[in-house]
Sequence to fold (350 residues):
Amino acid sequence: MAAVERAYELRADADPCGEHGALLAAVLSGLREQPKRISPVWFYDERGSSLFDEICELPEYYVTRTELAIMREHLPEIAAVLGSELCVIEPGSGTSAKTRMLLGALERPAAYVPVDIACEHLSAAAERLRREHPHLTVHPICADFTRPFAVPEGSPYDDRLIYFPGSTIGNFDRRESVQLLSHLRRIARGGAMLIGVDMAKDPRVLVAAYDDAAGVTAAFNLNALEHLNQRLGTDFDPSSFHHRAVWNAAESRIEMHLVSRCRQLVRVGNAFVSFAEGEPLVSEYSHKYTPQAFAAQARAAGWRVEQAWTDSRGWFSVQLLLPAHASITWGAVRDQCAPPRRETEPLDTA
Ligand code: AVJ
Fold:
């Protein structure tokens, strides 16, 4: 199975009918890897989601705040470059304040297509947006965005922008992220992507952001085990694990670990998984990029970086990607072309 699918297969299987066995098998296979791994999707039950909201407010967690500041400062320019009557597709939408900012700044946005596996949240958020933007076509899609999903054809879904904020791309390793970026490029159909990318910086700043003094991130990390117990009936004892955030310089990423405090056995379905004292269970990667490294990733996925906006410290960036092989210039220039026609993308054999 492709790596991007493996890391997120839980999402695919988390259908409302509850594919208990499939979820269990996916978790077990991660626990059989070396080092042991679980998917970061396990963070996000109800409690985890509100802990994440708390994280976003922490003094050490610069990520959300910095991206918001970049958006606030450069929104008029970003909106001007993007042009009018776009169909904005947002993978992993949630209920983002950034999306509201973007939709508010764009000229006559035509459609908004949020894609998320949290179906109830999704329809509530869609309802709210419909009220705020009566002329906007809102078409929520309940799906795992790492897998194929169908955006309707024709107007108002023609001129597409993928909006992928929050540095969610950081959760994917190098190979997975190239796969995901090219998957999203195909969905964009010749359109652009606006993506939030967290940048490499002093490891002390990074470790503090993922191991805050108030212990909120530790609670967030340990909650994944509660969620597993709740959803799958595993018997993890969260108090026998502790949170650790490590900077992996070779891979340019923060790793969130749950470290076993003792030798122990954990029951997962019909199997027992043994942990040595001090053995880590990896619960998340958060890759940090240099501008060059991200440009290379984008290029490998058939995109090119058209423009990047950043904060004064260069800690975070909001980047506009265009298809590397677009047959005409995209964006504001496109709006001046009459008629606004675009050739279809060259056939993708990747
Ligand atoms: C939501 C994936 C962007 O990597 O910073 C926050 C999640 N993990 N603190 C990140 C997270 C620990 C976050 N992303």
Q: What stands out?
A: The pocket of N,N,N-trimethyl-histidine is lined by residues 55, 63, 166-168, 170-171, 210, 217, 256, 284, 286 (CB under 6 Å).
